[in-house]
Amino acid sequence: MSQLLEYTYVQPEKEKRYPLPPQLNLWRVSISEDVFSVVLSGCRVLGNLYLSEIRDVDCLSISSPSLRIIVISYLFEGKGELLIKEAPCLVRLLLSCPGGEIIRVLRAPKLEILGLLSPCIPEIDIANIVFKGSIPSRSENPICTVKVLALHFSRPNLDAVLDILRCFPCLEKLYVIWDDYVKAEMKNVRQYEPLDPIKCLESHLKVLVLTNYKGGEEDVGFAKFFVLNAEVVKEINFGVCKNIDIDMKWMTDQLMLLEAENRASQDARLKFGSSSASWFGSLDTRDLSIADPFSYCFVDRVDALSEAYL
Predict the structure, then answer these.
(1) What is the pLDDT of residues 25-49, one digit of tens each?
(2) Quick check: 76 pLDDT over 90?
(3) What is the pLDDT of residues 255-290, one digit of tens each?
(4) What stretch of H or E contains 271?
(5) Whole-prediction pTM value?
(6) How confident is the model at residue 12 (pLDDT cuts 50, 70, 90)?
């Protein structure tokens, strides 16, 4: 295999940030559905909304002409439903630590960043697509606005991921986070049909980030599919588990197993770094202006950085 492998130091890029809009944080508060609606209607220039552990209510409805970001973490104490009725400016829907909530998005025509989608979320409806345990319903009308998607699974499940990707034909950046703490398993996953192409792999997907990568047979099989089938990808970033020593031999072996020389995109770079311990633990909910809220998943630092130029 012809390649150059070297340890390098890359100066971390300064995260792009946007001006901070007004933000409302509701955490461990008791509130009725009616009062919540009144509060939102009174916040006419509200930009960001953070909801966590809302008490004494099992249904909340959101209609806001100005909201751009919604962050949800353990929304209700038990089961409940969040209904996003009208959010014409919503760009990001960030979901972490799901409980038993059902999330329905009726209208968010500018939604670009979505995640974490997880089988732990019983149901999430976006436009006319219903994801039950992350398994999407069939639809003739995919979600074309989403450019960045993050998925949260217990282990590599290629069929499940490819089924989801069919719903996002214009996806440009995909994060797949493997986490042993995700206990919910995906059932009745449709198998991949090679004769039914996935549009984002043909013309849009530029960046793939795999976190908690161990380099075993399952991980390699999952990653190799994208190496061999993502036609316009520029970067495949491997966030390697911290208990694995990333040395020259390990990287060389991985490149051979991934069949990197036969990659579909000759411009693709394969980079090996370390995974952060927790995406949501790294997200500062007081400052949601970072351009890519999932960028913490892949730590591109000198302590674990190695890069393969192919």
Answers:
(1) 898 999 999 999 999 988 888 999 9
(2) no
(3) 999 999 999 999 999 988 887 655 555 555 555 667
(4) strand 269-275
(5) 0.86
(6) very low
Q: Are 117 and 150 in contact (CB under 8 A)?
A: yes
Q: Which residue has the tokens 């411009």?
A: 267
Strand order in the sheet with 129-132: 59-63, 79-86, 100-105, 123-126, 129-132, 135-136
Is 130 exposed, middle or buried (CB count within 10 Å of its CB: 0-12, 13-18, 19+)? middle
Closest CA to 176 of 129, 133, 218, 212: 212
Q: What is the rounded CA–CA span in Å between residue 49 and residue 124?
A: 18
Per-residue pLDDT tens digits for 42-73: 888 899 999 988 988 989 999 999 999 999 98
Total Cβ atoms within 10 A of residue 229 = 18
Maximum Cα–Cα distance for the chain, whole Å?
A: 65
Vertex 224 angle, CA 142 and 149, to 5° = 35
The answer for 142, left when phi > 0, alpha when psi is -120 to 50, beta otherwise, is beta
Q: What count of other Cβ atoms lies within 10 Å of the Cβ of residue 22? A: 12
Q: Residue 193 has which token pair?
A: 């049909």
Tokens of 261: 């020389």
Cα–Cα distance for residue pair 121/105, rounded to 1 Å = 14
